[in-house]
């Protein structure tokens, strides 16, 4: 079985984003970029399934600028076998991403498409669900455990009432949550080996997908600055202050 793992290049989760002076978007100049953390978990899980003998090949794919090759090389250093970059400088929206992934899945024939439940730059949480709908295949979202059982995959997912386990017929789409695993660090030897692994470059036009944005960002602003708290001497003073502020 082959596992297809889409990964996205985003601002590193340790970096505090800065808004452009004109409010048109987030400033990406000289900002550290890395693999979306949820996608990193998906890569790790795919590699673990391969190591357990449940999969034969792990293919990483990214849709974005030429610099997304760095993100794919990270996936290859972690243990993916080969990579595909669909190069575009457009801001690709979830539906266009899903359409491209569907076309790639039709070419590659994976048993599982495994991707992060969302990207930390836009938090859309749409691509996996849209892809499953376009492919007309079952989906297991927010996975905290994945187990292959013959022609099916068991996905344990977190819901409001606790945990739910679904049994999906393969091929299927699985989106990963934080508690699924702890991604490995790529060792220096594997980083060097990753440079020699195959990385194919394509374009959205190769898959007949128009990536022109359907949405326009009108304004981006910094979150409001949190006001400093105020110390009170006792409970009575707290109640009085709350009444003064109209909260009691």
TrEMBL record:
One biological process term in Gene Ontology: carboxylic acid catabolic process
InterPro entries listed in its UniProt record: ET-Flavoprotein_bsu_CS (IPR000049), ETF_a/b_N (IPR014730), ETF_b (IPR012255), ETF_beta_N (IPR033948), Rossmann-like_a/b/a_fold (IPR014729)
Span of domain Electron transfer flavoprotein alpha/beta-subunit N-terminal: 23-211
Stored Pfam families: ETF (PF01012)
Listed GO MF terms: electron transfer activity
Cofactor: AMP
Sorted UniProt keywords: Electron transport, Transport
Top-rank taxon, per record: Bacteria
Keyword Electron transport recorded: yes
Protein's UniProt keywords contain ATP-binding: no
UniProt family annotation: Belongs to the ETF beta-subunit/FixA family.
Protein role: The electron transfer flavoprotein serves as a specific electron acceptor for other dehydrogenases. It transfers the electrons to the main respiratory chain via ETF-ubiquinone oxidoreductase (ETF dehydrogenase).
Subunit structure: Heterodimer of an alpha and a beta subunit.
Record's protein name: Electron transfer flavoprotein subunit beta
